Amino acid sequence: MKLFVTGVCGQLGHDVVNNAIARGYEAVGSDIQPIYSGIADGSAVTSAPYVQLDITDRDAVLSAIEEIRPDAIIHCAAWTAVDAAEEEENKAKVHSINVDGTKNIADAAKSVDAKMLYLSTDYVFDGKGDRPWEPDDKCYAPLNVYGQSKLDGELAVSGTLDKFFIVRIAWVFGLNGKNFIKTMINVGKTHDTVRVVNDQIGTPTYTLDLSRLLVDMVATDKYGYYHATNEGGYISWYDFCVEFYKQYGLDTKVIPVTTTEYGLSKAARPENSRLDKSKLVEAGFTPLPDWKDAVSRYLAEAEL
């Protein structure tokens, strides 16, 4: 199986290429940078075939996919700066990347009869209530520009292809890039106390664990919508921070606050990010490990 992976300079794309190659698959990575610019960790992705590609350039996307002719495309590239997406000067760019760029990838996949796996987010829901969102729930009224763009990206995929996987994830952390754990540990090293919201509920997703699942998926024809985060139950960002501070050995006091009390975000955040993952098991896929175990393995590898 030959895979084409977008966004390999980011957290997830980096791990997907490494996982695929470790399992004997051929993988070609792409990103907008002229050369691979992720962490130079000596892993397979650093020496794997790489294609510079701006996914908003339709002709370039169609040409690249036509030449490579992958069996499956795992589309990790996206605009993910949630607060910056709210700024008026960025809204057109967010749509161009997350919607038009995704449509370009979907059209290219169709042209070579490739499967496509699109990474989406809990932000496609309205964030209300406390019932875990199921993969086949109807999405409506995302709370922010980023969420709407990812929902529109989902529709671009499902409206173009029959052979697609749409995988919604949440609270992502990985070695190759910025994330909540890195940010808060750096803050905790220089502060006696930190404030973290305790009324947004979900579950973290470790990209190393997720990458294994995504490669598992595209080796099958079990198409459709899925949710994938680490196991271990639903928690708040406050709970998450308390746990990784404990594992890291930081004595910084974590103060729980409401989203309103925190009050620093430009974009509205969902209170309910609970994702029901039972469909994974029903389809025969292996769930991701417990999030506390994922944090432990991440901290052992990350240079923090």
Give me the secondary-structure topology.
Elements: E1 2-6, H1 11-22, E2 26-31, E3 50-52, H2 58-68, E4 72-75, H3 91-111, E5 115-121, H4 145-158, E6 164-169, E7 172-173, H5 180-188, E8 193-197, E9 201-202, E10 205-206, H6 207-218, E11 224-227, E12 230-231, E13 235-236, H7 237-248, E14 253-257, H8 259-262, H9 278-282, E15 288-290, H10 291-301
Parallel strand pairs: 1-2, 1-4, 2-3, 4-5, 5-6, 6-11, 7-10, 8-14, 12-15
Antiparallel strand pairs: 9-13
Characterization of the model:
The chain has 304 residues and is α/β, with parallel strands linked by helices. The chain has one domain (2-177, 204-230, 274-289): Rossmann fold (3-Layer(aba) Sandwich), CATH 3.40.50.720. 37% of the residues lie in helices and 19% in strands. It contains 10 helices and 15 strands. The protein has helices at residues 11-22, 58-68, 91-111, 145-158, 180-188, 207-218, 237-248, 259-262, 278-282, 291-301, and strands spanning 2-6, 26-31, 50-52, 72-75, 115-121, 164-169, 172-173, 193-197, 201-202, 205-206, 224-227, 230-231, 235-236, 253-257, 288-290. A 7-stranded parallel beta sheet has the order 3-2-1-4-5-6-11, sandwiched between helices. α1 (11-22) crosses α6 (207-218), α2 (58-68) runs parallel beside α3 (91-111) and α7 packs across α10 (291-301). The model has no long low-confidence stretch (mean pLDDT 96).
